[in-house]
Design goal:
elongated; about 80 residues; mainly alpha
């Protein structure tokens, strides 16, 4: 889009989309992770500012499919 905006500086995004018959598609959002480095007071203020702008959700961890975590190993009870 930025190349077309340079080519047609007098048109806005909607006009360029209409000109090329493009349709807008709602994209998926990536996860953003923040780690604040500062004092407790600064971290609290920054977190409050972040919460006003974005919805904070849990880490999107799915089911573990790489290996079977329910496997129980056999151990030797008596060495000698």
């Amino acid at each position: 889009m930025s190349d077309y905006r340079l080519e047609y500086p007098n048109k806005n995004r909607d006009e360029i989309c209409e000109m090329f018959k493009w349709t807008k598609i709602q994209g998926t959002y990536k996860h953003r992770y923040f780690y604040f480095i500062g004092t407790k007071k600064e971290k609290k203020l920054w977190l409050q500012d972040l919460e006003q702008k974005y919805k904070i959700t849990e880490y999107p961890k799915g089911d573990n499919v790489r290996y079977d975590a329910s496997y129980k190993t056999s151990t030797q009870n008596l060495l000698f």
